[in-house]
Specification:
The complex is a heterodimer of chains A (103) and B (164). Chain A has a single domain, classed as Helix Hairpins (Orthogonal Bundle). Helix content of chain A is 75%, strand content 0%. Chain A has helices at 5-25, 29-53, 60-90. The longest helix of chain A is centred in the C-terminal third of the chain and has 31 residues, at 60-90. Chain A is elongated, with a radius of gyration of 17 Å. The mean pLDDT of chain A is 90. Chain B is mostly helical and 164 residues long. In chain B, helix 1 (2-23) packs antiparallel against helix 2. Chain B starts with a helix and ends in a 5-residue tail after the last helix. The model of chain B has no long low-confidence stretch (mean pLDDT 89). Classes of the chains: A mainly alpha (103), B mainly alpha (164).
Amino acid sequence: MTIGLEHYLVLSAVLFGIGLYGALTRRNAVVILMCIELMLNAVNISLVAFSSYVVPLLLTGQVFAIFVMVVAAAEVAVGLAIVLAIFRGLGDIDTNNINLMKW
Amino acid sequence: MGLDIAFWIMAVVVIAAALAVVFLRNVFRAALALILCFIAVAGLYITLSADFLAAVQILVYVGAISVLVILAVMMTRDVWKGNPANRLRIPALVVAAALVGILIYAVTASPWRISNQPPLTPTTVPLASRLFSQQGFILPVEIAATLLLAAIIGAIVIAREKDK
């Protein structure tokens, strides 16, 4: 059985599901950010697969994947800075204990 | 045939590394598994003949983002209590499994219009002309540059020691 578009999309879906599960269940804020990176990578895989199977000459999916990478880099920089600031203020990055804004 | 084998190897490595990120107790080892996952995704890009994106993946994710993640892991090390899960384990599993099921159903049931043309290789020059040409994506490129600048300044301001 030769590899087709569906293989990449199913792999991307499974990777996104793993990342979603991790982001919902983990309590360490750094691990949550890592799981968000997993989800962004899953989306990138599907974008590049669409690009090379559906519109191989237009490359629009790859262009979009580059923009996703830019936003991911910005997100991880600001996110980790926020985690460090929280750690400095509260001495903890356990999301169960960061409930200052809980009403 | 070789591409098929490469795809299966990369797919297994990606899924195994992603599971390791979520389920390893040691946060530092989870970060290392995340790097392995990024490298395998770059391999997947190569099997999709996206050579420039594979290089960017290695540079940005393996080179920069993983360093940031490991830095954050090191900085927060004295509160290491492993990688515990919260009370949402069962609902999150249900939600994630339902989402994956729906996605797989949608993917396999949709009639994709597969083009019979071979993908472009190498992609660097066509990508550059797509990104920087007048009819291309030059405005989003400029906006992305502004976003990166704002993110850098924001990260510095947020992470800086408040000295009074």
